[in-house]
Amino acid sequence: MVYGEGSERVRALDRISLEIGHNEFFTLLGPSGCGKTTLLRLIAGFEQPTEGSIRLYGQPLEGLPPYRRPVNTVFQSYALFPHLSVAQNIAFGLEMLGKPRAEIAQVVREMLGLVKLVGYENRRPAQLSGGQQQRVALARALANRPKVLLLDESLSALDLKLRKEMQLELKRLHAETGITFVFVTHDQEEALTMSDRIAVMQEGRIAQVGTPTEIYDAPNSRYVADFIGETNFLKARARGGVLLLPDGSSLPTPVHTPDGEVTLAIRPERARLSADGSGISARVKDVVYKGTDTIYLLELPGQEPFQVRSQNRLGALQLVRPGDPVGLELPPEAVRVLKE
């Protein structure tokens, strides 16, 4: 996908090849400007590709306007009609399709039940909370039973508690409707919580596609490891089946790794402090108590600051203070070797 011409020519998407399964909850995840919304707009028909093909169940979509595609979009702003009631908003698309009144009334009743807004049908959008407005937008988008529902940052306008509640609501709606959901977000927690699969995007390309577990536990690059969750990175040299750190300590390679410079990725919750000081020598820089967890910020010779996240189980709290020397243990299964 290319915008502009000449010196102002910008390639928004570059060699994207992607297949989304029937009834899949698929998430496009990435920072602002990575191309995820552009890709969603191409599927919706708001943009046309400069090259390549988009197919829905084998049928090409290029050239078709949005209203002729079996696809509906829920926008971040919800785009509800303020002068119409909840029921009228839900019915609007069906009325534009010329559906019979009895059928429209039946579908509106079904949608109100699906999004748990029975009794709200005569209210206007201004009389609803943010979460209720989003449910109306979802009901309107689902009313004509599209084959694909596109959701463009549709939770970002909600506060944290309501956003978490709506994550579960979207999962429920997906399971009950059997419709393919394609969700765009920059929020990694949303992606991990709701998705069957995730495409992590980087500068107009897809960096990695996989299940939430695959993306989190087996990132294929430093970019993916750094974008998904909190990650520690260590510099090391692979040589003869071991990983040598700058301070002279070594770790076994978790997989066969060719000799050379590598980066190790370790999630904070997979590392631990050793009670007897064994492992990699480190010094405590700071301790942050977070209720369920305690974060230990460590200094290692020749490395970036390293975090250890320890769950505060009864009697398990490590009594260490800033400045204390400690040992850092890294189980082989916690270490991911990255080549970039």
Please tell me about this protein's structure.
The protein is of the alpha+beta class. The chain folds into two domains: 16-217, Rossmann fold (3-Layer(aba) Sandwich); 230-338, Beta Barrel (OB fold (Dihydrolipoamide Acetyltransferase, E2P)). 25% of the residues lie in helices and 28% in strands. The model has no long low-confidence stretch (mean pLDDT 89). GO terms for molecular function: ABC-type polyamine transporter activity; ATP binding; ATP hydrolysis activity. Keywords: ATP-binding, Cell membrane, Hydrolase, Membrane, Nucleotide-binding, Translocase, Transport. Part of the ABC transporter complex PotABCD involved in spermidine/putrescine import. Responsible for energy coupling to the transport system.
Looking at the structure, the CATH topology of the largest domain is: Rossmann fold
Number of domains: 2
Name of the CATH superfamily of the largest domain: P-loop containing nucleotide triphosphate hydrolases
Q: Label the CATH architecture of the largest domain.
A: 3-Layer(aba) Sandwich
Biggest sheet statistics: 6 strands, mixed
End-to-end Cα distance? 27 Å
Please state roughly what percent of the residues sit in beta strands, choosing from under 5%, 5-15%, 15-25%, 25-35%, 35-45% or over 45%.
Answer: 25-35%
Q: What is the C-alpha radius of gyration, as a whole number of Å?
A: 25 Å
Give me the number of helical elements. 8
Helix content: 10-25%
N-to-C order of helices and strands: EEEHEEEHHHEHEHEEHHEEEEEEEEEE
Structural class: alpha+beta
The low-confidence parts are none
Number of strands: 20
Mean pLDDT: 89
Overall geometry: elongated
CATH class of the largest domain: Alpha Beta
- Order of the strands making up the biggest sheet: 6-7-8-3-9-10
Catalytic activity: ATP + H2O + polyamine-[polyamine-binding protein]Side 1 = ADP + phosphate + polyamineSide 2 + [polyamine-binding protein]Side 1
InterPro entries: AAA+_ATPase, ABC_SmlMolc_Importer, ABC_transporter-like_ATP-bd, ABC_transporter-like_CS, Mo/tungstate-bd_C_term_dom, P-loop_NTPase, PotA-like, Transp-assoc_OB_typ2
Organism: Meiothermus granaticius NBRC 107808
GO molecular function: ABC-type polyamine transporter activity; ATP binding; ATP hydrolysis activity
